[in-house]
Amino acid sequence: MRVVVTGSTGLIGASLVRALETGGCRILRLVRRAPSRERGEAFWNPRTGGIDRAALEGADAVVHLAGENIASGRWTRKRKRAILESRTIGTRLLAETLASLDKRPRVLVCVSGINYYGSRGDETLTEESAPGTGFLAEVCREWERAADPALEAGIRVVHPRLGLVLSSRGGALAKMLPIFRLGLGGRIGNGRQYMSAISISDLVRAIAFLIDDERLTGPVNLVMPSSFTNAVFSKTLGRVLGRPAFFPVPAVAVSIAFGEMGRETLLGSLRVVPAKLEQAGFQFRHADIESALRASCEPSARDRMEA
């Protein structure tokens, strides 16, 4: 199988490419710098509308992961525009190009996020739940809509809505680990906000599952079956690391330090379940937060070899 991947150097992309190549897939990486054919790369630049259309001909699947980091700083007006455009402009260019091909791919897996649902307290959210409010909910709606040209051309389009991705190699967990290892971690705000997460290994397996399973279309929540509160997450991470987790971060401090970004990403409550994945028969290796954290915090064989 020939698979095109954008965002192949990021946390998710690098892990996915390794897994797909191990499984025998041939990978074409879309990159914004000068491409190397020897490394299996082709050029694209969403800002200028440039894309190597010929390189995409005959691909079996496309996985679109590229986009600005939403949690790299406070959301100024300029930053919010960059976050939105990094998702919509690139997605639209890719979808329109795929729709115009003579030999179109069977599937476009275009990532989105569970923030589509907005902060909803303790309400259980499935793929059938209505969209929520807030900046990230708006981003997710526009992001998914930008892939419509591929859908209209008859390509199966899947939107994996990602929860918190657990990995010691990057993302939110990697930033938390030094603090918790010092015994300085704790709940954020009152700790009652729900979190929905997935281990990086289950995420990669789930994306491969979406590529292969032709029954799955539209939004698919990529989170473990059990959600949990921030307080439970903090206590569990402390227990996994063998450290206390008694130092709460007041909600007002989050708001002052991070503004709107902190209120949506750290204080928002999302109790999401993977209804479509489970109905399709996907088997999670890490179905609860303790299992996922233990797998994420323990050094892998690859880490040990590199040490």
Kindly describe this structure:
The protein has about 300 residues and is an alpha/beta fold. The chain has one domain: Rossmann fold. Helix content is about 40%, strand content about 20%. The chain contains 12 helices and 15 strands. Strands 1, 2, 3, 4, 5, 6, 7, 9 and 13 form a 9-stranded mixed sheet that branches. Helix 1 crosses helix 7, helix 3 packs parallel to helix 4 and helix 8 crosses helix 11. The longest helix has 24 residues. The chain is globular and about 60 Å long. The C terminus is likely disordered.
CATH superfamily label: NAD(P)-binding Rossmann-like Domain
What gyration radius follows from the Cα positions, in whole Å?
19 Å
- Please give the number of β-strands: 15
Number of structural units classed as domains: 1
CATH class: Alpha Beta
Question: What is the first-to-last residue Cα distance?
Answer: 33 Å
- Proportion of strand residues: 15-25%
The backbone outline, from C-alpha atoms, is: globular
Low-confidence stretches: 300-307
If you consult CATH, what is the topology?
Answer: Rossmann fold
Series of secondary-structure elements, N-terminal to C-terminal: EHEEEHEHEEEHHEEHEEHEEHHEHHH
Proportion of helical residues: 40-55%
Strand-pairing-aware structural class: alpha/beta
Question: Which CATH architecture is right?
Answer: 3-Layer(aba) Sandwich
